[in-house]
Sequence to fold (385 residues):
Amino acid sequence: MFRYFPTNYVWDLSVNLSIEMGARMGEIAAMCEPLAEAAKAPDAAGTAAFRESWVKMADTLTELATEDEARGRTISAGVKHLRAANYMLTAERLQGHGSDGRLALYRRMLAAFYRGLSMTHTGAQRVVIPYEGQQLSAIWIPAEGVTGPQPVLVQVNGLDSVKEMKYLVGPPNWLATRGVASLIVDQPGTGEALRLHDIKARFDSEHWASKVVDWLEARPDVNPKRIGMEGVSLGGYFCPRAVAFEPRFACGVAWGGNHDWRDVQKRRLEREGDFPVPHYWDHVCWVWGARDVDHFMESAENVHLDGVLDRIQVPFLVTHGAKDSQIPLKWAERTYEQLINSPRRELKIFDDRTGGAQHASCDNAANAGAYIMDWVAEVLGGHTA
Fold:
């Protein structure tokens, strides 16, 4: 894991995620150099300085993109808009819930991202899925070179990621080259669902996952018998739970085994393990709609997979980083052990040799992601060569 701020794991996690999303190292250096002292400051003061530095670079990239557009160079402009969105996303993610300008920055990020997406001609597009009188937003990425209905992998966020992050890291495009489409969803408690529609997280992920499958089955370009699901970080809980209770999924992948998130919260109360974001307790209360930490801890009691996984009767891959400092490896092993009725279960531990050894493979998503996407392609009928 690249450590720019040795005393601040949360910031370094964010920098690594930004790199995985396509940041340029010269820009990373320019944004981080003024922040050495701020990284040691309390959350509110430190994250304000982080935001100022990173948004300044995003503003510069937006100006350069506008200059490209004026010359008709929209492909170059699109790449810059996407990188500006990366930096805005990274800055927004670190801000406390309700902090001044956070929502406006999020909306700016969305505008930059989708402007860039439209200019880069990837075929990816924003879509919406009806959900309880509101909507869940998603990104649809079609498979390459497939005629007729396509296999598709539904990809969902962790606690604090958003669909644009998962797109920029690359797995949907890696999967598209293997003949499998992707649908990246801002599920309840994440992304647009939380920020724009106030749709909170819920432990019974099959509730919203089933609505996603309904939507996919209505598309003529989707093979309804080849719909899989993948979840990263806390998605490593949401995905197995959804696959267990929604039998239409043909396979599942936990990118990070998150078997007992209630236990992780108890350990965090005791200051064991690293936090993924600043203002952590305010963040989880916002995500889960809790009045306070005590109320949140009551809700977290439901977020575990014991007594659930024997329902899964489709192939399932569990992966984990050997050096994950947020979620202990034992929870990935527990998930694997309880997949007793899966006809093709696998536990893959990413280590120093393979890369991807940190939480959610933030140190090397390319190697870990290639392994996962190869497995998905084999199971859903894509190709690996």
Summary: The longest strand covers residues 222-232. The mean pLDDT is 96. The chain has 15 helices and eight strands.
